[in-house]
Amino acid sequence: MRVVVTGATGGIGFAVAEAFAKAGHAVVLADLNAELLKSKTAELTAAGYIADAFVLDVTNAEQIAACAAQFPADILINNAGIQHVARLEDFPPEKWALLLDVMLTGPAMLTRAMLPHMQQQNFGRVINIGSIHALVASPFKSAYVAAKHGLLGFSKVIALENADKNFTINTICPAYVKTPLVEKQISAQAKEHNLTEQQVIEQIMLAPMPQKAFIDVSEIAETALFLCQPAAKHITAQTLVLDGGWTAR
């Protein structure tokens, strides 16, 4: 099967792409960073896996259409994401809009572009990489939290619209994962809260999590693989939460 992964050069994206490649799927790494995309794709092909690259801006309608035309997906992983940390009154409006475009409108439009192929063949799997912030909120992240909350509602609607097909759409919501994106958040939150970076990790990021540990990218990749197995064919419109007990409080 062909698996298209957005944000594929990042920590989570590449882990997911590599896991699907190792499982025998043909993977398409889609990302904005052309240079890194080339090297990450070459890394997979050098290991003997089937991998292609597509330079994709998920906010660009023409690029979305071109990606769907060249690489119609059997499995779509909506993973591309960005972050900006600020109080709402200090949040640049254009930055707020960009976060929503990348993490809510982008997945919706890419899913829309891939759906005809999935419907025609009566098989499709869409997996959104959400966040603990699709379920709870944190200060200074209004755009990110809004986008991730919206992703859950979007997924439920698309599941209902395609319930007559062999199609599922689900959202994986991990607590903090130690990726470059989170590393930047640590620095930004340290500045915003006037704390050291270690204090941000202990007092903000891991404080609500009973297990007190970052989620590993392999956990997300393996969960995504499971959602594409026959045993998961009736799991749809669901939120799979990898949070170490955070939301049990």
From TrEMBL:
PROSITE patterns to which the protein is assigned, alphabetical: ADH_SHORT
InterPro entries on file: 3-OHbutyrate_DH (IPR011294), NAD(P)-bd_dom_sf (IPR036291), Sc_DH/Rdtase_CS (IPR020904), SDR (IPR050259), SDR_fam (IPR002347)
SUPFAM superfamilies per the UniProt record, alphabetical: NAD(P)-binding Rossmann-fold domains (SSF51735)
A Pfam family hit: adh_short_C2
Family named by the database record: Belongs to the short-chain dehydrogenases/reductases (SDR) family.
The enzyme's E.C. designation: 1.1.1.30
Protein name: 3-hydroxybutyrate dehydrogenase
Superkingdom of origin organism: Bacteria
Residues making up the signal peptide according to the UniProt record: none
Any GO MF annotation of the entry: 3-hydroxybutyrate dehydrogenase activity
Keyword annotations: Oxidoreductase
Keyword Nucleus: no
